[in-house]
Amino acid sequence: MREWVIDYIFQQDCYYTETMPLKKIKSIETPYAGVTEEQYQNEKHRLQVELLKIQQRLIKDGKRLAVVFEGRDAAGKGSTIKRFTENLMPSYYKVCALGVPSESESKYWFKRYESQFPKTGMVFFDRSWYSRALIEPTMGYCSESRYKRFMRKVLKWEHQHIDNGLFLTKFYLSIDRETQLFRFENRLSSPLTYWKFSDNDLHARKKWEVFTQYKEQMLDHISSNKSPWLVISANDKKEARLTSMLYLVRAFGLRNFEPLTGEDVTATHSISLSGAKFRGLTQQQLAVLKELKEQEKRFVELDQ
Q1: What is the secondary structure of 226-244 as a DSSP string?
Q2: How many CB atoms lie within 10 A of CB 114?
Q3: Do 275 and 226 sit in the same domain of this protein?
């Protein structure tokens, strides 16, 4: 039986949101526990082929997909997004990692992110509008009234965009304290990644329990049938990357995709374009030429 939530608790204060059916959080179990490096590379390749196919269909149908990644500092949001996108067509995806908002952006919070939604294709959010439910209240960057307003309005706002054709997927990458500390130490000890660590990361770590309270409130109250939260354990980065990619492939592409089958994904393809035959193509090359072929077809139709 679905729950109907009509109030949220903010410190000692009780306030109300519109009555809305909520759905239990989906904790995604990984089929990739203990994956070897060879298995990881092969599976990543297989999943990236399917992600490229999803992107092609979105372009062909004029559809939009927004993928949100939330989590603590060093949860692996950026590196996971990198694996999603490294073989996609650049013209039809973008990664959105917005910085500190201006006062106007902070006031008109949802508009700040609406402007990042694509007309066609995909957008990946490395942190999102949910900063208002997580890091902003944790660190005191927003007022209580703005936090409350966000909690009241966010699901309705998401539902409106979903009803207007936006596909939305929300991942929360969950790590424990020990894993975060280990990754911070790795960042600081490397001449290539030390810049990723900031004083703000340290201040946020000191407020671990406060962040946890806001996280639990968000997951408990801002997850609906239309817009559920998908929680993935990210203590192992490789497992988290593959698990989130697998979910998206099954949700928007090959529903019966079987993990770790070891199937060869190096098969080549061919296509005819402008009277010329192209052979031995990778899936990515085929996708680009298919796009050119569609453009050629449209030009021909316009000339007729």
Answers
A1: SS-EEEEE-SSHHHHHHHH
A2: 13
A3: no
- Same domain flag for 69 and 188: yes
Q: Are 122 and 92 in contact (CB under 8 A)?
A: yes
Length of the chain as a residue count: 304
pTM of the model: 0.82
215 lies in the same domain as 289: no
88: left (phi over 0), alpha (psi -120 to 50) or beta: beta
> What is the residue-averaged pLDDT of the chain?
88
* Pick from 255, 213, 268, 273: nearest CA to 9: 213
Please state, in angstroms and rounded to a whole number, the distance separating the CA atoms of residues 59 and 294: 11
Whether residue 286 is found in the same domain as residue 168: no
Residues 199 and 155 in one domain: yes
Low-confidence ranges of the chain (pLDDT < 70): 1-24, 263-269, 279-280, 282-285, 298-304
pLDDT tens track for 85-133? 999 999 999 999 999 999 999 999 999 999 999 999 999 999 999 999 9
Q: How many domains does the chain have?
A: 2
Q: Is residue 190 domain-shared with residue 228, that is, in the same domain?
A: yes
Q: Which residues form the domain of 185?
A: 3-252
How far lies 220's CA from each of 51, 156, 256, in Å?
A: 30, 16, 30
Q: Check residue 277 and give its pLDDT.
A: 73
